[in-house]
């Protein structure tokens, strides 16, 4: 066959999967040979070598031989093979059949636009025939074709083919997976790979090559809601660039200059002022797949990790519990009670396995109802609970924002798709606090006695604002003034213990959640002791504040908010502009403390 | 969106992931076409800025025009340019051109070793002072934990097995057989103390894609890639004693694109002019396991 020259420079990524020894390499070798994609003389050379060693020639040997000659520029390796048809270029990604290499298989499959799954007609459906079928659907490949291989070993028997196809269809349908087609092939003999088989007149469908050329490139779906995980916020002030750019890659939908946008989970809103780029044509619209950046018309405080959406589009779900299908690759099993990191979109958040609803057995994909953990290579239907609210979609509504991975001990150990949001139950923290308060051993001195003696209640006075907002100087001055009035007060330098709470952390600040937790527990004790405990914090959000309030319960938080911060609503007891004038700001704080009866004068 | 735009967007996404996740990040700039495209993509990703240092390992045997080009762009684009070198080996003449080492041993000494110790900060780093135009010893010796490298999967076998985010242990070693999974837009960006990650934003690009992009974006490329009247040009750049040009009359980017499209080099490796590859059994795997780029 002559080398075909593709008309278009189109490329498509394929993956060939299936159980070990069912003939993946033979299928690939045959595709390369039959499309003339092999280096000159290679086929003859490998055949001669087999003859010399008295071994029957196998197309799979071609791959091995090529692997040893990668540097000749043919660039073939088991990792990626290239071939081309008249229609386009193809890249076949590595997808080893052995179960130990499942994470490689997943990696190869996740890059593919279509999959060929190979089943040995003689040996029938095996463990990885099933597992790979499921994985392919889970990573999001819509175009799956099943090759029933080694038909020569079953005398090209139509019944064997149909039985295999039927059995496998039943299995896949249980998982909600629908293959496009089954093709009977004998890859070693070339039957139905590039040319129609004379041995199987009863089959009138396409050959594998025809099938491959009929795979479709995914169309950009402009109808989907606009979603862009905020990858980062850039401000290159040191380079004399004052733009504050919200950067990310658009996962779906479109957005234009002037559109109103909402960031989740914070709920902050603004309008797109400009679409930014370097060495690009000016533009007023962005489309799916673009790695872009925006400036907004108002200064709002948002963090990397939020999901940027368009006002008016169906909003994403925002919550702390989600039901998901999850595939586990970690060496250690996934267990309840352990804290993992969930990554969804650009968000990184602590998460626990709250419930295991069922586990599909690794080898049989049989359902087990009462498993207590998810073992390596298992697929589980689970409920995950995050430590703070996250924004997500159901996978069926919007694929890119409905998929996640779980990180355990620095490694991506799990991958999954969101089925639906799960109802928020009593969160872990509510339960913890209830138990804590129930068993809290009190002394004999009642809070009111302390309040009378000190002439003030115990209170956690929190100054929230961006670095450089002037909060620290103000907080220290408030401590000074209260102290002079005779109050029991203490300025706690936040950076002494919780350095990250002193700076604007981006997504993935797992320690942030732990430190908020520790801070809340600490202030619970100090406020109970009747102290006016003062500290500063750099930009907490609503969820953090709510958590601090809960942890500090039954005592209260007094909030001084400076400038535009991560808090979406007006929670503040005192709201100040950045860099406030200290004496007047102190006066306002003291007045508010007095009007709220924190500072009381029992001597009158 | 065409092929090149897709590749560009993905590379930019990966660069931004790296920048967000790594406090101590650098990019290797070999002055060749690949890492120069990478540098261009970086300026696109960060809206005209290059927010991390560029590290060049100077073997002292680079073709002089490469160094001149490096310093010209570094000054023009205001790059934070850092240069590392195996000063000792060069001074002691323990190199291949001096007849003391094989090509592979020389690569190991002047490139892999120099790279390893420059990244870790154990050996001095020379930093370009933009006001004087001279290189000075850099005070900063903090190890780099993220290293952006312009390798491509189609260059040669070992690179085709790479991940976008590829872990290296304390010895700079690469465990080819146990690599992290990568799926959707999620990469391994968490790493244990003492280890570091190589980041490969160009993994999916082919040689032709690069030249098409260079043409489309009008990226300044060192002149050694073009035929300048001798019927030869470099297809891959390295040290002068170990790099040979290919037969070609291409004098411009568009002629290189046409030449690659014609299939002229379909059966000749891009790196066939790099003598150390041949000595390493044409796999580079030995060198790469030891930390070669």
Please describe the structure with a list of short key phrases separated by commas or semicolons:
heterodimer; A: 604 residues; alpha/beta; Rossmann fold; Elongation Factor Tu (Ef-tu), domain 3; 4 domains; 6-stranded mixed sheet; disordered N terminus; B: alpha/beta; 8-stranded mixed sheet
Low-pLDDT sequence parts of chain B: none
Strand content of chain B: 5-15%
- The CATH class of the largest domain in chain A turns out to be Alpha Beta
Instruction: Indicate the structural class of chain A.
Output: alpha/beta
The domain tally of chain B reads 2
Question: What characterizes the major β-sheet of chain A?
Answer: 7 strands, antiparallel
- How many distinct beta strands of chain A? 29
Poorly predicted segments of chain A: 1-7, 69-78
Annotated CATH homologous superfamily of the largest domain in chain A: P-loop containing nucleotide triphosphate hydrolases
Describe this structure in words.
The complex is a heterodimer of chains A (604) and B (293). In chain A, the strands form six sheets. A seven-stranded antiparallel beta sheet of chain A has the order 7-15-11-12-14-9-8, with no helix packed on it. Chain A has 13 helices and 29 strands. In chain A, strand 5 (143-149), helix 6 and strand 6 form a beta-alpha-beta unit. With 604 residues, chain A is of the alpha/beta class. In chain B, helix 1 (3-21) crosses helix 2 and helix 7 runs antiparallel to helix 8 (253-261). Chain B is of the alpha/beta class. Chain B folds into two domains: 3-205 and 281-289, HUPs (Rossmann fold, 3-Layer(aba) Sandwich); 207-277, no CATH class. Chain B is globular. Chain B contains ten helices and ten strands. The mean pLDDT of chain B is 88. Chain B has helices at 3-21, 33-45, 64-76, 87-91, 103-120, 157-160, 207-217, 253-261, 275-279, 285-289; strands spanning 25-28, 54-57, 81-84, 126-129, 134-137, 146-148, 165-168, 196-199, 232-233, 246-247. Chains A and B meet through helix 4, strand 9, strand 23 and strand 24 of A and helix 1, helix 2 and helix 6 of B.
């Amino acid at each position: 066959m002559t080398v075909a020259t593709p008309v278009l420079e189109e490329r498509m990524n394929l993956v060939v999967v299936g159980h070990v020894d069912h003939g993946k390499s033979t299928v690939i070798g045959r595709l390369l040979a039959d499309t003339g994609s092999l280096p000159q003389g290679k086929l003859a050379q490998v055949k001669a070598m087999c003859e010399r060693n008295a071994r029957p020639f196998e197309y799979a040997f071609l791959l091995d031989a090529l692997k040893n000659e990668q540097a000749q520029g043919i660039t073939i390796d088991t990792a990626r093979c290239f071939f081309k048809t008249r229609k386009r270029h193809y890249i076949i990604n590595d997808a080893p059949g052995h179960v130990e290499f499942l994470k490689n298989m997943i990696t190869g499959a996740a890059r593919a636009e279509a999959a060929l799954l190979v089943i040995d007609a003689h040996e029938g459906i095996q463990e990885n025939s099933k597992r790979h079928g499921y994985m392919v659907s889970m990573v999001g490949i819509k175009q799956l074709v099943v090759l029933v291989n080694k038909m020569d070993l079953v005398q090209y028997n139509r019944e064997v083919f149909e039985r295999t196809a039927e059995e496998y269809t039943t299995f896949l349908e249980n998982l909600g997976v629908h293959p496009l087609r089954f093709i009977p092939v004998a890859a070693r003999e070339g039957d139905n790979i590039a040319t129609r088989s004379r041995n199987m007149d009863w089959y009138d469908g396409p050959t594998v090559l025809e099938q491959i050329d009929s795979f479709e490139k995914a169309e950009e779906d402009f109808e989907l809601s606009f979603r862009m995980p905020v990858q980062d916020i850039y401000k290159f002030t040191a380079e004399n660039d004052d733009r504050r750019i919200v950067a990310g890659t658009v996962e779906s939908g479109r957005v234009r200059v002037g559109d109103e946008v909402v960031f989740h989970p914070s709920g902050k809103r603004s309008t797109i002022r400009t679409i930014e780029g370097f060495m690009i044509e000016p533009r007023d619209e962005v489309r799916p797949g673009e790695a872009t950046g925006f400036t907004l018309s108002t200064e709002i405080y948002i963090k990397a990790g939020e999901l940027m959406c368009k006002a008016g589009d169906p909003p994403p779900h925002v919550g702390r519990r989600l039901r998901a299908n999850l595939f586990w690759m970690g060496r250690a099993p996934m267990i309840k009670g352990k804290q993992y990191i969930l990554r969804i979109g650009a968000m990184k958040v602590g998460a626990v396995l709250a419930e295991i609803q069922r586990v599909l057995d690794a080898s049989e994909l049989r359902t087990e109802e009462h498993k207590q953990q998810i073992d390596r290579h298992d697929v589980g239907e689970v409920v995950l609970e995050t430590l703070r609210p996250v924004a997500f979609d159901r996978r069926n509504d919007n694929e890119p924002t409905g998929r996640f991975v779980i990180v355990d001990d620095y490694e991506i150990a799990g991958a999954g798709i969101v089925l639906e949001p799960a109802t928020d139950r009593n969160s872990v923290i509510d339960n913890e606090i209830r138990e804590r308060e129930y068993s809290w051993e009190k002394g004999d001195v009642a809070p009111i006695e302390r309040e009378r003696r000190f002439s003030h209640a115990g209170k956690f006075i929190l100054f929230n604002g961006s670095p450089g907002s002037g909060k620290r100087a103000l907080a220290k001055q408030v401590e000074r003034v209260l102290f002079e009035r005779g109050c029991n007060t203490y300025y706690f330098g936040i950076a002494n213990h919780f350095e990250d709470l002193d700076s604007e952390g981006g997504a993935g600040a797992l320690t942030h959640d732990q430190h908020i937790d520790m801070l809340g527990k600490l202030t619970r004790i100090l406020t109970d002791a009747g102290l006016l405990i003062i500290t500063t914090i750099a930009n907490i959000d609503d969820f953090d504040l709510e958590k601090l309030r809960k942890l500090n319960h039954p005592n209260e938080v007094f909030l001084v908010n400076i400038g535009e911060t991560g808090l979406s609503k007006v929670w503040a007891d005192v709201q100040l502009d950045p860099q406030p004038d200290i004496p007047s700001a102190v006066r306002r704080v003291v007045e508010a403390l007095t009007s709220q009866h924190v500072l009381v004068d029992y001597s009158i | 969106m065409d092929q090149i735009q897709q590749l560009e967007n993905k590379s930019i996404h990966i660069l931004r992931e790296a920048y967000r996740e790594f406090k101590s990040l650098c990019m290797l700039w070999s002055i060749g076409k690949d890492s120069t495209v990478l540098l261009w993509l970086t300026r696109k990703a960060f809206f005209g800025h290059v927010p991390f240092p560029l590290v060049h390992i100077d073997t002292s045997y680079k073709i002089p025009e490469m160094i001149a080009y490096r310093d010209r762009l570094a000054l023009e684009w205001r790059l934070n340019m850092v240069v590392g070198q195996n000063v000792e080996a060069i001074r002691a003449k323990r190199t291949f051109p001096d007849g003391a080492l094989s090509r592979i041993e020389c690569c190991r000494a002047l490139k892999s070793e120099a790279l390893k110790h420059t990244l870790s900060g154990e050996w001095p780093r020379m930093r370009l002072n933009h006001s004087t135009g001279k290189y000075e010893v850099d005070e900063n010796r903090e190890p780099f934990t993220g290293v952006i490298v312009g390798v491509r999967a189609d260059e040669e076998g070992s690179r085709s097995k790479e991940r976008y985010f590829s872990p290296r242990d304390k010895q700079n070693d690469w465990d080819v057989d146990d690599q992290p999974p990568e799926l959707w837009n999620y990469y391994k960006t968490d790493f244990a103390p003492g280890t570091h990650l190589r980041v490969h934003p160009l993994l999916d690009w082919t040689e032709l894609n690069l030249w098409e992009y260079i043409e489309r974006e009008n990226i300044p490329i060192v002149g050694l890639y073009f035929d300048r009247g001798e019927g030869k040009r470099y297809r891959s750049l390295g040290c002068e004693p170990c790099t040979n040009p290919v037969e070609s009359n291409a004098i411009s980017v568009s002629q290189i694109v046409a030449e690659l499209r014609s299939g002229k080099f379909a059966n000749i490796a891009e790196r066939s002019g790099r003598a150390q590859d041949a000595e390493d059994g044409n796999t580079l795997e030995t060198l790469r396991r030891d930390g070669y780029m």
